[in-house]
Write a structure and sequence with these properties.
Structural class: mainly beta
Number of strands: 13
Distance between the termini: 11 Å
Radius of gyration: 19 Å
Strand order of the largest sheet: 1-13-11-5-7-9-10-4-12
Shape: globular
Length: about 220
Amino acid sequence: MATVEEKRIVDLSHVIEDGMTTYPGLPPPHICDFWTREASAQNYDDGSSFQIGRIDMVANTGTYLDAPFHRYAEGADLADLGLGSLVGLPGIVVRRPWEAGLATDAADLERLDVRGKAVLVHTGWDRHWRSDGYGSGHSFLTAGAADWLVENGAVLVGIDSNNIDDTRRRERPVHSKLLAANVLICEHMTGLGRLPDEGFSFSAVPPKIRGMGTFPVRAYAVLG
Protein backbone atom coordinates (compact mmCIF):
# COMPACT_ATOMS: atom_id res chain seq x y z
CA MET A 1 0.00 0.00 0.00
CA ALA A 2 1.35 3.41 -0.96
CA THR A 3 2.14 5.78 1.87
CA VAL A 4 0.98 9.38 1.98
CA GLU A 5 4.47 10.45 0.95
CA GLU A 6 4.38 8.20 -2.13
CA LYS A 7 1.21 9.63 -3.63
CA ARG A 8 -0.38 13.02 -4.01
CA ILE A 9 -3.96 14.01 -4.77
CA VAL A 10 -4.52 16.96 -7.12
CA ASP A 11 -7.93 18.66 -7.16
CA LEU A 12 -8.99 19.53 -10.71
CA SER A 13 -12.37 21.13 -9.97
CA HIS A 14 -13.59 24.70 -9.58
CA VAL A 15 -15.44 25.71 -6.41
CA ILE A 16 -19.19 26.17 -6.89
CA GLU A 17 -20.28 29.44 -5.30
CA ASP A 18 -23.56 31.28 -4.97
CA GLY A 19 -24.26 33.56 -7.94
CA MET A 20 -21.30 32.51 -10.09
CA THR A 21 -21.43 32.16 -13.88
CA THR A 22 -20.20 28.92 -15.44
CA TYR A 23 -21.57 29.10 -18.97
CA PRO A 24 -22.76 32.46 -20.35
CA GLY A 25 -26.53 32.56 -20.63
CA LEU A 26 -27.22 29.87 -18.03
CA PRO A 27 -28.53 30.94 -14.60
CA PRO A 28 -26.09 30.94 -11.68
CA PRO A 29 -26.56 28.65 -8.68
CA HIS A 30 -28.45 29.89 -5.65
CA ILE A 31 -27.06 28.43 -2.40
CA CYS A 32 -28.84 28.98 0.91
CA ASP A 33 -29.96 27.34 4.15
CA PHE A 34 -33.05 25.16 4.04
CA TRP A 35 -32.70 24.38 7.73
CA THR A 36 -30.72 26.88 9.79
CA ARG A 37 -28.70 26.03 12.89
CA GLU A 38 -30.73 28.50 14.95
CA ALA A 39 -34.06 26.97 13.93
CA SER A 40 -32.89 23.38 14.31
CA ALA A 41 -31.64 23.94 17.88
CA GLN A 42 -35.23 24.27 19.04
CA ASN A 43 -35.83 20.61 18.18
CA TYR A 44 -33.21 19.18 20.57
CA ASP A 45 -32.79 19.27 24.33
CA ASP A 46 -29.02 18.81 24.34
CA GLY A 47 -28.10 21.96 22.40
CA SER A 48 -27.53 20.15 19.12
CA SER A 49 -27.96 22.17 15.96
CA PHE A 50 -27.67 21.25 12.31
CA GLN A 51 -27.55 22.94 8.93
CA ILE A 52 -29.28 21.50 5.89
CA GLY A 53 -28.35 23.38 2.76
CA ARG A 54 -30.26 23.96 -0.42
CA ILE A 55 -28.86 24.61 -3.89
CA ASP A 56 -30.90 25.52 -6.96
CA MET A 57 -28.83 25.23 -10.13
CA VAL A 58 -28.73 23.97 -13.68
CA ALA A 59 -26.72 20.80 -14.22
CA ASN A 60 -24.01 22.57 -16.23
CA THR A 61 -22.44 24.31 -13.25
CA GLY A 62 -18.80 24.34 -12.20
CA THR A 63 -16.63 21.43 -13.35
CA TYR A 64 -19.05 18.88 -14.79
CA LEU A 65 -19.27 15.58 -16.63
CA ASP A 66 -21.26 14.98 -19.81
CA ALA A 67 -22.78 11.52 -20.33
CA PRO A 68 -24.20 10.40 -23.72
CA PHE A 69 -27.75 11.36 -22.62
CA HIS A 70 -26.63 15.00 -22.64
CA ARG A 71 -26.56 14.81 -26.45
CA TYR A 72 -28.68 11.76 -27.30
CA ALA A 73 -32.12 10.87 -25.89
CA GLU A 74 -31.30 7.16 -26.18
CA GLY A 75 -27.83 7.51 -24.66
CA ALA A 76 -26.68 6.44 -21.21
CA ASP A 77 -27.66 8.86 -18.45
CA LEU A 78 -25.75 9.50 -15.22
CA ALA A 79 -27.34 6.52 -13.49
CA ASP A 80 -26.24 4.21 -16.32
CA LEU A 81 -22.56 5.06 -16.06
CA GLY A 82 -20.42 2.31 -14.59
CA LEU A 83 -17.84 3.33 -11.99
CA GLY A 84 -15.18 1.71 -14.13
CA SER A 85 -15.53 4.57 -16.61
CA LEU A 86 -15.29 7.22 -13.86
CA VAL A 87 -12.81 6.08 -11.22
CA GLY A 88 -9.09 5.39 -11.34
CA LEU A 89 -8.63 5.84 -15.08
CA PRO A 90 -5.03 6.00 -16.26
CA GLY A 91 -4.53 9.61 -17.31
CA ILE A 92 -2.53 11.50 -19.89
CA VAL A 93 -2.17 15.27 -20.29
CA VAL A 94 -1.97 16.99 -23.68
CA ARG A 95 -0.24 20.39 -23.45
CA ARG A 96 -1.89 22.90 -25.80
CA PRO A 97 -1.37 26.46 -24.47
CA TRP A 98 -4.13 28.74 -25.70
CA GLU A 99 -1.61 31.47 -26.49
CA ALA A 100 -0.19 29.23 -29.25
CA GLY A 101 -3.60 28.54 -30.81
CA LEU A 102 -7.09 27.72 -29.62
CA ALA A 103 -7.68 24.52 -31.59
CA THR A 104 -6.40 21.06 -30.68
CA ASP A 105 -6.45 18.86 -33.80
CA ALA A 106 -5.71 15.21 -34.54
CA ALA A 107 -2.14 16.11 -35.50
CA ASP A 108 -1.54 17.26 -31.93
CA LEU A 109 -2.50 13.82 -30.61
CA GLU A 110 -1.20 11.32 -33.14
CA ARG A 111 1.91 10.22 -31.21
CA LEU A 112 0.01 9.53 -27.99
CA ASP A 113 -1.23 6.24 -26.56
CA VAL A 114 -4.73 7.08 -25.35
CA ARG A 115 -6.41 3.66 -25.39
CA GLY A 116 -8.37 3.10 -22.18
CA LYS A 117 -7.26 6.46 -20.78
CA ALA A 118 -8.63 9.79 -19.64
CA VAL A 119 -7.16 12.39 -22.00
CA LEU A 120 -6.94 15.82 -20.33
CA VAL A 121 -6.24 18.80 -22.57
CA HIS A 122 -4.29 21.45 -20.68
CA THR A 123 -4.72 24.84 -22.37
CA GLY A 124 -4.41 27.22 -19.42
CA TRP A 125 -7.76 28.81 -20.24
CA ASP A 126 -8.85 28.22 -16.64
CA ARG A 127 -6.87 31.32 -15.64
CA HIS A 128 -9.83 33.31 -17.06
CA TRP A 129 -12.36 31.60 -14.76
CA ARG A 130 -14.90 34.04 -13.27
CA SER A 131 -13.83 36.76 -15.72
CA ASP A 132 -15.80 38.35 -18.56
CA GLY A 133 -13.47 36.78 -21.11
CA TYR A 134 -13.84 33.18 -19.95
CA GLY A 135 -16.93 32.42 -22.01
CA SER A 136 -15.76 33.46 -25.48
CA GLY A 137 -12.79 32.87 -27.74
CA HIS A 138 -11.76 29.82 -25.69
CA SER A 139 -9.69 26.72 -26.43
CA PHE A 140 -11.45 23.73 -28.01
CA LEU A 141 -11.01 20.44 -29.90
CA THR A 142 -11.69 19.97 -33.59
CA ALA A 143 -13.96 17.37 -35.13
CA GLY A 144 -10.85 15.65 -36.45
CA ALA A 145 -9.44 15.40 -32.94
CA ALA A 146 -12.70 13.85 -31.74
CA ASP A 147 -12.59 11.27 -34.53
CA TRP A 148 -8.99 10.41 -33.65
CA LEU A 149 -9.78 10.01 -29.95
CA VAL A 150 -12.70 7.69 -30.70
CA GLU A 151 -10.70 5.62 -33.18
CA ASN A 152 -7.81 5.27 -30.73
CA GLY A 153 -9.87 4.18 -27.76
CA ALA A 154 -9.99 7.12 -25.33
CA VAL A 155 -12.44 6.57 -22.46
CA LEU A 156 -12.87 10.16 -21.27
CA VAL A 157 -11.75 13.55 -22.60
CA GLY A 158 -11.40 16.63 -20.40
CA ILE A 159 -10.52 20.25 -21.07
CA ASP A 160 -9.87 23.29 -18.87
CA SER A 161 -11.93 25.72 -20.96
CA ASN A 162 -15.51 26.86 -21.40
CA ASN A 163 -16.46 24.16 -23.91
CA ILE A 164 -14.80 21.26 -25.71
CA ASP A 165 -16.42 22.52 -28.94
CA ASP A 166 -15.80 25.82 -30.71
CA THR A 167 -18.75 27.88 -29.49
CA ARG A 168 -18.22 30.52 -32.18
CA ARG A 169 -20.02 28.08 -34.49
CA ARG A 170 -23.59 26.81 -34.32
CA GLU A 171 -22.41 23.18 -34.41
CA ARG A 172 -21.22 20.76 -31.75
CA PRO A 173 -19.27 18.04 -33.63
CA VAL A 174 -16.97 17.12 -30.73
CA HIS A 175 -19.82 16.51 -28.28
CA SER A 176 -21.69 14.61 -30.99
CA LYS A 177 -18.81 12.33 -31.97
CA LEU A 178 -17.46 11.60 -28.49
CA LEU A 179 -20.80 10.99 -26.79
CA ALA A 180 -22.06 8.87 -29.71
CA ALA A 181 -19.09 6.59 -29.00
CA ASN A 182 -19.71 6.62 -25.20
CA VAL A 183 -16.58 8.68 -24.60
CA LEU A 184 -17.35 10.85 -21.58
CA ILE A 185 -16.53 14.58 -21.45
CA CYS A 186 -15.34 16.68 -18.51
CA GLU A 187 -15.43 20.46 -19.05
CA HIS A 188 -14.38 23.52 -17.02
CA MET A 189 -11.47 21.73 -15.40
CA THR A 190 -8.67 23.51 -13.59
CA GLY A 191 -5.22 22.79 -12.23
CA LEU A 192 -4.03 20.59 -15.09
CA GLY A 193 -0.70 22.37 -14.99
CA ARG A 194 -0.02 20.63 -11.67
CA LEU A 195 -0.10 17.18 -13.30
CA PRO A 196 2.70 15.29 -15.01
CA ASP A 197 2.17 14.27 -18.62
CA GLU A 198 1.33 10.73 -17.46
CA GLY A 199 1.75 8.42 -14.50
CA PHE A 200 -1.45 9.32 -12.62
CA SER A 201 -5.01 8.07 -12.25
CA PHE A 202 -8.06 10.25 -12.87
CA SER A 203 -11.51 10.18 -11.28
CA ALA A 204 -14.66 12.27 -11.80
CA VAL A 205 -17.86 10.87 -10.30
CA PRO A 206 -21.31 12.53 -10.55
CA PRO A 207 -24.33 11.50 -8.48
CA LYS A 208 -26.31 8.49 -9.74
CA ILE A 209 -29.24 10.42 -11.21
CA ARG A 210 -31.78 8.97 -13.62
CA GLY A 211 -32.88 11.16 -16.53
CA MET A 212 -29.94 13.60 -16.51
CA GLY A 213 -26.89 13.69 -18.74
CA THR A 214 -24.73 16.30 -17.00
CA PHE A 215 -23.82 17.12 -13.41
CA PRO A 216 -20.96 18.69 -11.42
CA VAL A 217 -18.14 16.40 -10.31
CA ARG A 218 -15.19 16.57 -7.92
CA ALA A 219 -12.55 15.72 -10.51
CA TYR A 220 -9.13 14.75 -9.16
CA ALA A 221 -5.93 12.93 -10.00
CA VAL A 222 -3.83 10.65 -7.83
CA LEU A 223 -0.09 10.73 -8.49
CA GLY A 224 2.34 8.04 -7.49
